[in-house]
Amino acid sequence: MKGEPEHNVAGGCRARTPSALHCAAMFQYRLEDTQGSARAGTLHTPHGEVPTPAFMPVGTQGTVKALAMEEVEALGARMVLANTYHLYLRPGHELVHELGGLHRFMRWDGPLLTDSGGFQVFSLSAIRDVHDDGVDFKSHIDGSTHTFTPERVMDIQRALGADVIMAFDECPPGGCDRVTAEAACDRTLAWLARCRDRFDVLQTEADGPAQALFPVLQGNVYDDLRRSHAERTLGMHDWKGYGIGGLSVGEAKHDMWRTLEILDGVLPADRPRYLMGVGYPDDLLEAVARGCDMFDCVAPTRNARHGTAWTSTEGQVNLKAARFKRDTAALDPMCDCTTCSRYDRAYLRHLVVASEWLAMRLLSIHNLRFLVRLGEEARTRIGNGTFEGWHVEWLERFRKERSNQ
Amino acid sequence: MKGEPEHNVAGGCRARTPSALHCAAMFQYRLEDTQGSARAGTLHTPHGEVPTPAFMPVGTQGTVKALAMEEVEALGARMVLANTYHLYLRPGHELVHELGGLHRFMRWDGPLLTDSGGFQVFSLSAIRDVHDDGVDFKSHIDGSTHTFTPERVMDIQRALGADVIMAFDECPPGGCDRVTAEAACDRTLAWLARCRDRFDVLQTEADGPAQALFPVLQGNVYDDLRRSHAERTLGMHDWKGYGIGGLSVGEAKHDMWRTLEILDGVLPADRPRYLMGVGYPDDLLEAVARGCDMFDCVAPTRNARHGTAWTSTEGQVNLKAARFKRDTAALDPMCDCTTCSRYDRAYLRHLVVASEWLAMRLLSIHNLRFLVRLGEEARTRIGNGTFEGWHVEWLERFRKERSNQ
């Protein structure tokens, strides 16, 4: 710690301190309770603590769709994700940096994570060339040509200034052949070394924020690749946390669960595990049961856009259904969100059917709160030893109701 | 008053009292100050008081687009408008009634006004037949056929249950020929008598809310028609207030101002005058100077959808402009709305350019607050005798800045 006083580490690591490098000690994960493989812990960041399991709302373009950040905070979200690919293209990472960084830009003073942009490059940009140096791609907005390399992605995420940033990885489609999966593992590992080198240099700069770099684990659905890629990644560095990539990309559910079980045996207990792109409520709970701590997904807001909501009592419902026309009950009687406190199903249905802007907002608040609350309840139950029975019952009820729709 | 105690009139006129008819005394307008033709007053309604001049946000389909009603209240709006045509078609006035009325349905406990649907029938529905009994029209949603008569429109607005309801009128296009304008005046007057008769019957029903019926003044841009239609309307009944229709429908601005000056000379001082469908900030202020008290318009939210905002310092601006890219100032440094308090132009521009949902919401809050505040300031200045000089300067500055864009 080179003589930095401890209280600086605890309290003085907001953006732009001169001791950014030393603040790396900030990104500690404290494992507090376990039940089976399920874990409850706390991730410390320069912008606050994140109790886990934690669902992170996605603020793709520097805004969680239709919501103000006060609402995101009010619904209990502790950490938010933003997309490097989108912000790099628009408004540009340099502009965000110039305007004081992403926290300031999007008015979020809590913990913030940016992804590497890799997943979007592989899924959104139509034309691309993947080579050892990086990826050439065309913007989905205007067709302009860009290149992401590991170094460039570190520079961009440095400029954005999130607390946790992700390494640039190659993410082949779910169910790709083994040769492709293996090549992607090797490339991801080579890129990771370059990310780390650039990250280390950037963290020595005097005027930037303290950040933690998480690697992304690949290997598709091939168990030995998953194991070897995780072991090789662990062997490279004592990372502050691990992103689990290449899941929820088209593979079978049982492949996802088996992969998580393998990784649970390999990953260190005292580091957070971030399952990228998951998920739906039942998937989130299945993953918590298999040792995952952090999650993100656009499903809550995307479903809201289609009038779909999750409920404790009826599983997933679509508000367009005629049966809600005269229904003056709360959307979810078990929910404590502002939507369920103030509005009834009949009015929500009207907003959805009339394609009103407010529908998107009210359903997004509820769906996000549903996942955040699921993480909170899982955490409580892991703490008091009631997770195992509860999570099985919860999954059964949620799936049974869904199949009844 | 048939022996009803006065305190019932003042405090007991929320929806569904048995003495609805007697509560008509509630809709008193107290004229408090004047300067020239400009007026400051207070309209009393069963759901609260409305200090005038007052801009009323439009909640077309039972929601002010993109906003929660708490936000509408927080930005200082005291009375809100909803559209009979839209709510009749979707979700249906009977359903709204069954669910407890429009106040409850849309979560707005303050003063509420519904229009007659006439304007929408004439502007939105593609095919129609206007006859002495009413108007046959096709829904703009599904093409289904409907008929509005004066009686039907009273029934619908009774079911919705707003505090102030509007008579069914015929509104010909701005600049129509004199014969058309005169025929519309006659028909509007005949329909008004039928509205009043039905309204009187409905108000004797024991289980409904106390409501006030405002007639709508027509006459297009023909001064003698305007004068005679107003006089004949006044002669029919001692109305609680007057809607000024057939303006802001394509006629020249000087025709609108001259018409308002004529009506200012005819209308009683102790009744509120509601200028329907106005407006833009400068039009609102011009109309206040000519004796109008209440206003509504979709421009604040429609402009927001296009990235346009009104400012005290730069007139009307479009946030898409490149000059806002690095602008960390508040949208309007003179504004006290939550958008101007929390966000800067650079971020608002990003939201607009990226077509983010939040842009619509933040700009709507600002634009609505801009008009509500303009009414508030006009009221203060009428009260302290500084309206005349101020309003001329305000108009000059606002228009100069707009022409500089």
Top keywords for this entry?
405 residues, four-stranded parallel sheet, alpha/beta, homodimer, globular, 44% helix, five-stranded parallel sheet, 17 strands, 16 helices
What does this structure look like?
Two copies of one chain form a homodimer. Chain A is α/β, with parallel strands linked by helices. The first copy, chain A, is built from 16 helices and 17 strands. In chain A, the strands form five sheets. The first copy, chain A, has a five-stranded parallel β-sheet. Chain A has a four-stranded parallel β-sheet with strand order 5-6-10-11. Chain A has a three-stranded antiparallel β-sheet with strand order 1-2-3. In chain A, a hairpin with a 3-residue loop joins strand 16 (308-311) and strand 17 (315-318). In chain A, helix 11 packs antiparallel against helix 16, helix 12 (299-305) packs antiparallel against helix 15 (357-384) and helix 14 (345-353) packs across helix 15 (357-384). Residues 1-20 of chain A have low confidence and may be disordered.
**Largest interchain contact:** A-B, 35 and 35 residues
- Mean pLDDT rating of chain A: 92
Q: Note the quaternary state here.
A: homodimer
Number of helices of chain A: 16
pLDDT < 50 stretches of chain A: 1-20
Count all strands of chain A and give the number: 17
The outline of chain A comes out as globular
